[in-house]
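name: query_chain
kind: protein
chains: 1
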Amino acid sequence: MSDLAAQVTAALSRSIWSSVIARGAASIRVAAADEEGVVTLEVPGSPGAVLPVLGRIEAQIRAAVPGVTAVRLAMAPSSPSSSPEAGDLGVAAQRVLDSEVNPAVAAHRGHVAVDSAGGGWIRLRLEGGCQGCALAEVTVRQGIEPLLRARLPGITGVADVTDHEAGTDPFFTPAKR
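structure:
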């Protein structure tokens, strides 16, 4: 392991690992660090948990390790034999949402739909009481994503693409957080 990679690993363990794991990622590790200071992180399990905060992670790493010029995220490709085609993945995910998720979130005036699917990724759009809800991320990371991973082996990750700022009637307002 290079000196830069060791420094980044130490910075991750001091301040970042626990927050990333709390968001639903299984772990995070330094996959590579090159001479130009570009660090590549690998997040097995749930890279979708890291994408929304990658900018903050990069800022923390760059502040802790001055030699870092950029941080990249490595996505492990899903195996073609276990991963359905994009259209099939989206349809299969929507079936799971309709049968197992939407009946539960309907109690909060919410609905979850597949916005798109491709490359092993399922992009979700939260609607109704879920749009702008202060607990939307918890719902996605601790409820929906583990369920989809259990039902659809081989997916790379789940991303919430909802415009939460446009939510007009969230079930839990940010003030209730």
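note: The first helix runs from residue 3 to 22.
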